[in-house]
Amino acid sequence: MLTQLPLYQQAILTLAAMILFTSFALLAQQRVLSMIHVFAWQGLLVAATTVLVAYDSSAHHLYFSAALTLVLKVLLIPWLLHRLVHRLGIHRQAHTVAHPALVLMVAAALVIFAYYVTLPIHQLAHSITRNTIAISMAVVLLGMLMLITRNKAVSQVIGFMSLENGLFFAAVAATHGMPMVVELGIAFDVLVVAVIFGVFFFHIRDSIDSLDVDRLNRLAEREP
Amino acid sequence: MSALQFTLGIPLLSSVLLALYGQRSWAATLNLWAAGAGFAASAWLAWGVLEHGALGGGASQLYIDSFNVYLIVLTAFVGATTALFSRPYMAQEEESGRLSARRLRLYHASYQGFLFTLQLALSTNNLGVLWVAMEGATLATVLLVSLYRTPEAIEAAWKYFIICGVGIALALFGTVLVYFAAAQVIPDPEQALLWSELARHSAELEPVVMAIAFVFLLVGYGTKVGLVPMHTWLPDAHSEGPTPMSAVLSGLLLNVALYAVVRVKILTDGALAAHPGVHDPHLPGYLMMGFGLLSFLVAGLFLHRQRDIKRLFSYSSIEHMGLMTFAFGLGGPLATFAGLLHMTVHSLTKSAIFITVGHASHIAGSQGMEQIRGLIRTQPVVGWGLLIGTATIAGFPPFGVFVSEFLLLSATMAAQPWLTLPLLVGLGVAFAGLFRHVQPMVYGDLPEGQSAVRANMWPVAIQLTLVLWLGLAIPAFLAQWFDQATLLISGEGLL
Does B212 touch chain A (CB under 8 A)? Predict the structure, then answer.
């Protein structure tokens, strides 16, 4: 079955699998710098998929989105994070995950769930799009899982950005990109998000002397 | 199209101007005039739509119909009255040393930027641009929530940013799925996300994809509506940001997010109704009713245990947004009409209440409800404002909130009689929750050394009068307008 597919479709499926793998790697990663590197790799894989889809479907505006992803997600944002981490002096810090085995098992369950949800879509019966949609949904859900299980601001940001990668992958692989207006808007928003995150790191550190967001707990509803 | 260009252009231009020159002393005045001019432009736009019918649509990127035009006017109106309140209020914050001129520049630029993103979200025809504008609205306000830079404010802003960021990301996934479904039906990819095109082809869209997309979009935009259990950012962001911001967040942002959900619901309903047997055709409606009812009941209970006055009223916002979501979920002309009316009266009343609350917390020097006492003797106009505002929002006749809640109850009685019970109980619980806190604040013993502040109660008076008017008699042209929107959403008119 798989070998009957055209070569480029096989390549897209391989890349999709690797993107999912990087999501798992992010979930289990404990060191900040490695996490940033894995995130950059994920961006690179998404950009590569975009180029492949652009070449195959001769949708030329996708080259532009690929370049945008490369610049934003592979170079600019990891570089910004790198610089921030060094300036905040937390590049050696370990970000421990509580119950890593449990987290990874939940992650596996989420992937199965993503496939389960996309199974009944009729128009996908014979195409690789079912796989790519299921995988992009899984990447989105894993990004959310990472946001929930991490307690350091930097790893939450990386989880958030990886979630964004899943969305972008969905847009490219399932629908050959979004209309240009929308893509420009999304890229602009992502950039602003990255900048605001940077501003926030300093605010949080100044206010609680740490980037441990567990300590942001003054506003919870509790017994008066 | 020129009125529309003004409606969008004025806030955008003034946002840029204020970002450059916002530290000057005339910034607050410019903010006020820009908001006023924006309101004038939107009224002009509405008049055009009323005379000549829907604007744009087809292949155009902008689309104004009877549903969004009244929200555009409402947004511009509340934006203008809040700007009127914001000028003396923020000046007082600067005098008291809580804010510097640079922060005020950020504040004013973000205020206009926020209004621009809301108007863009309302007037666009493109679901993708709608998403971009909704995200833009978060980004424009996130630094305002942390404006005071206290640890609490930073925490609130971080929560707001992360929770709404994730929510809106889910909405983007839903938008991608809609695009995926549309790409099979609409050949031109540039038009496949245009709402007017999608609505024309809604019966041909793949129902399973649309159902999945709707779930993502409901949870995504529902986060910004403040639906339980995605609501946790809302009370924090409302209580820690500057008060004019709370007024526009509560009065406007939540409405626009709900507007986005309803737009998508229309498409999903169309797709599901055309393919019976795939999913229950009422799936979107049931989901909205469930989320709405849950938010309504949970928020009503949370009202009782609040100690911060702004948190109290932000839970009341969650409660009312739940009620509106329930109304649109219930569907049918009567419930839809009630939902539209409730959107209007809630945002007028709630922004008026937040303005009053801003003055009340200046008088007491604290937002803690235990510190706020004896308002009616210190400054009667603020005390009465708070009392009447609370009575209005709790649904006392003859105000407009009563009318919309009554309509909704009758619609529920006809369609799902059993659900009237939780609705009535919820209204009672919320009523008790509000008044047990408000009564001592208005009438309680006067603390020593409390003095009146410079207060501008005109916006409150105007807005509450409008709500009273809507409760006594809805003007014919407005009723006609709501009716056209009802026809658009539920498929049949009421009048």
Answer: yes
Q: Enumerate the residues of chain B whose CB falls inside 8 A of the CB of residue A174.
A: 176-177, 180
Chain B contact set for A221 (CB, 8 A): 302, 305
Establish if A220 belongs to a structural domain. Answer: no
Region of poorest pLDDT, from A167-176, B79-88, B235-244, B334-343: A167-176
Do the domain assignments include residue B356? yes
Cα(A119)–Cα(A213) distance, integer angstroms: 38
For B174-200, b/e burial (b = at least 16 CB within 10 A) is: bbbbbbbbbbebbeebebbbbbbbbbe
Interchain CB contacts (distance < 8 Å): A and B: 136
Residues in chain B with CB shorter than 8 Å from the CB of A147 are: 162, 166
Domain with B387 in it = 282-495
Q: How many residues does chain B have?
A: 495
H-type helices in B53-100, by residue range? 66-95
Judge contact between B217 and B174, C-beta under 8 A.
yes
Q: Domain containing A49: what range?
A: 2-215
B109 touches chain A (CB under 8 A): no
Residues of A in contact with B109 (CB under 8 A): none
User: Does a cis peptide bond (omega within 30 degrees of 0) precede residue B398?
Assistant: yes
CB-CB under 8 Å, B128 with A179: yes
- B88: number of Cβ within 10 Å: 15
Output the pLDDT for position B180.
87
Tens-digit pLDDT profile for residues B469-484: 999 999 988 898 899 9
Give the separation between CA B215 and CA B219, rounded to whole angstroms: 6
- CA neighbor of A195 nearest in space, from A42, A72, A54, A96: A72
The overall longest dimension of chain B from CA atoms, in Å, is: 72
Q: Does B62 touch chain A (CB under 8 A)?
A: no
Query: Of B165, B139, B140, B130, whose CA–CA distance to B11 is shortest?
Result: B140
| pLDDT for residue B384 | 94
A210 is a domain residue: yes
d(CA B463, CA B346): 10
What is the rounded CA–CA span in Å between residue B7 and residue B238?
Answer: 26
Q: Which residues of A touch B132 (CB under 8 A)?
A: 182, 185-186, 188-189
Is B132–A189 a contact, with Cβ atoms under 8 angstroms apart?
A: yes
Counts for chain B of helices (H) and strands (E), in that order = 20, 2
Number of structural domains in chain A: 1
* A40: nearest Cα among A67, A65, A75, A16: A75
* Rg for chain B, CA atoms, rounded: 21
Structural domain includes residue A152: yes
Q: Residues in chain A, how many?
A: 224
Q: Is B173 touching A (CB cutoff 8 A)?
A: yes
Give A56→chain B minimum CA distance, Å: 17
How much is the pLDDT for B359? 92
Question: In a mutagenesis test of the A interface, which of B126, B142, B155 is the best target, namely the one with the most A β-carbons within 10 Å?
Answer: B155
Q: Which residues of A touch B314 (CB under 8 A)?
A: none
Q: Please count the other Cβ atoms lying within 10 Å of the Cβ belonging to residue B12.
A: 17
Q: Which amino acid is at B398?
A: P
Amino acid at A174: A
Query: How high is the ipTM of this complex?
Result: 0.89
Alpha carbon separation from B73 to A163, B91, B434 (Å, rounded): 36, 27, 29
From A160, A185, A186, residue closest to B165, measured CB to CB = A160
Task: Return the pLDDT at A122.
Answer: 64
pLDDT tens digit string along A47-70? 999 998 888 877 788 888 889 889
Mean pLDDT estimate for chain B: 91
- Owner of token pair 């128009």: A123
Total structural domains within chain B: 1
Residue A222 inside a domain? The answer is: no
